[in-house]
Specification:
mainly alpha; 51 residues; elongated; 2 helices
């Protein structure tokens, strides 16, 4: 796969935040879901670009 542990960590954090977005949407917390969505997008982008 890759030797870059930082990139893998960022992708993991991004996927973890995506799970939080799903949870917040199910609970009806739209503002929290939007904030987590932005964080997830940033983390996944950072992980992919770092790869």
């Amino acid at each position: 796969m890759t030797e870059n542990w930082s990139a893998m960590a960022m992708v993991f954090v991004g996927l973890f935040l995506v799970g939080g977005v799903v949870s917040f949407i199910k609970q009806g917390i739209k503002v929290g879901a939007a904030v987590l969505g932005v964080g997830a997008a940033l983390a996944l982008t950072a992980g992919v670009m770092w790869w």
